[in-house]
Amino acid sequence: MRQRPLPDARLGGIAPHISADAYRRAETTGQPIVIVAPTADPTRAPRHWHRLLIPFVIAGAAVAGGWGLVAALCMLLDAAAHTATVIAAAAGPIGVGGIALTLARSKH
Asked: Which of 30, 47, 58, 104 is deepest in the core (most CB within 10 A)?
């Protein structure tokens, strides 16, 4: 595996690599070696905004997932309450010790 070259402080932390073949060819023919260093893209957001934005996006997704979980739990409890009401209405009043408790109103 090829190791990355150490950064060169004179080029702002960018260490260009020139292959040995290209260097020797330029040395024998007298061709100049042109090193193109990339510059920052002005249309893109700076890197520090990305470092700040990513945690907020993750936190927002977690909050949205939490609210979705709460909504699903509420729907499940609502369905369970409706099911219990239908079953209780079909069973009639529940009595213990002579006291009757009607869980659902009859439609009569």
From this structure: 104
